[in-house]
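Lecture 7, part B: from sequences to assemblies.

Below are the input chains for today's worked example.
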Amino acid sequence: MQVDPQVLRPGWFLAGALLLMLAAGGATAVLMGTVAKAPAAEEPLRVVYHINTDDLELHLNALRNLQNHIDGSPDDVSLKIKVLTHGSGISLLQHARTDPDLRSTVNTLKLQDVRFLVCGNSLESRGLERSDLHEVSDRDVVPSGIVELTRLQRSGYTYIKP
Amino acid sequence: MSNERLSAKNRPSEEILNAFVDGEFSPEDRLFTLKTIASSEHLSREVCDMHQLKELVNMAYEDVPAGRAAGTTGGRCRLSRGGGSAWFPSVAAGVLALVVGSLGGYEITRDAGFFGGDHAAAPGQESGALAQVAASDNAPGGAAAPQQVFSATETDQILLHINEADTRAVDELLDDIESMYREAATVGRDLNVQVVVHNNAMGMLRTDSAPYPERVASMAEAYPTLRFTACAQTLNRLAREEGQKVDILPQAELIDSGVAEAARRQAEGWIYIKV
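Predicted structure of the full complex, as structure tokens:
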């Protein structure tokens, strides 16, 4: 009879409650994790196109490929496509200022949520400003193109070099 | 103290207390037990503890219906206690444990890669044979690697493939490598970088035509995880065409084939960038 009050001290309840909470928390997390990861089928397909040469013909071809890529994808697959211009390839968005064909292709792709990214190092080494390129916002300039390519691939982007 | 002794003598058994908290009594039994409990402050505190535990458990398992006794005993607890402040630490601890448990459970299970089927997780890190086999089983070509493949590793394995003769591109490649190492140092990641030189780009590593031999040497020294590798097949072809052996910079290593190396590394889960 003397033992009971000892055993039933609030401290024991507290310890038990903590353990239960931990177990319950773990179970909840597992459940939530399963729920969160379950719709893997609806994961968007992530692709990054890498452009690093100053070649208008290549630029036009690459963007045509990209449009075909979008057109050829099944409707239920959402696409996340980025074009990373880097090195001499940043001229793509320079050409887009003067070449109406290229400009309208770029604009059409942008309307389909294709992002055009520009390597900040390359801009700097060529003494170019954002304003020298066709509609590049602050968010479109990444500090280093190569680092961005690494980052994107690490987070699941497929790499294509046209 | 005397109060406690008294209650120890007359106290109802634990089964009765539990049944009371769970609301399993008929109204008569319930009233009787309630009186007994109310007569001892110690006992009522205990019952409150039990009730609280039950509530916490109910909270943790959302789909369990809240206790039927919740309304009535809840009121009784407050009556007999006179102040609820002593509950606060245990409630706070419970909530904290729930949060810590959730986060801990989630982190552990996520890092262990239980979800999402991307068992190719962390193909990098060690270049041990096991890791490579596992990676190449799951990610042929590496191109269609699932998202967050590298979430568990702190090492980026990057293959830079160059095959065009363009001094400016070489210059920028070296700049890029430096900025990669700078960036990796600031975010605390390790890098494994392999430059694969083949075909028309071989001039970059040839002793007789390398545009930046000192820079290649100093970078190879500054970054021990940076490797310059030259395609042996290209060198053999050049030697045949020129009728003499082609020497490469001392920092450069020979690999059997540039294209094969690029394919192999991608199969192993390396990040591939064509310069």
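Note for the exam: The two ends of chain A are 83 Å apart (CA to CA). Keep this in mind when comparing with the next example.
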